[in-house]
Write a sequence for this structure.
């Protein structure tokens, strides 16, 4: 699945009013991990991930941010995409 497709699905889950909160959170977490695997596959291997230059990581995520900017739910999408790194909760999901 491509990053634009993942972001579109995240937007759809956020906007969905028929799915339970728990299921939405689970779907968003899975999509976030899928996106990370696409953007930074090295994330799975801490040693390899630590060897990546921060400029390389920033360059990869810049493309993602550019795609996210197309959506009205961009702040929520960015929160979801940050979840693997921050382990934040999804208090705002209804």
């Amino acid at each position: 699945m491509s990053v634009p497709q993942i972001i579109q699905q995240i937007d759809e889950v956020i906007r969905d009013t028929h799915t339970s909160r728990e299921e939405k959170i689970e779907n968003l977490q899975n999509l976030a991990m899928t996106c990370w695997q696409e953007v930074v596959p090295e994330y799975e291997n801490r040693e390899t991930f630590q060897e990546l230059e921060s400029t390389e990581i920033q360059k990869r995520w810049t493309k993602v941010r550019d795609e996210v900017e197309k959506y009205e739910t961009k702040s929520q999408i960015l929160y979801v995409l940050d979840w693997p790194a921050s382990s934040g909760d999804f208090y705002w999901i209804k």
User: Anything to note?
Assistant: The mean pLDDT is 90. The two ends are 26 Å apart (CA to CA). The chain has five helices and no strands.
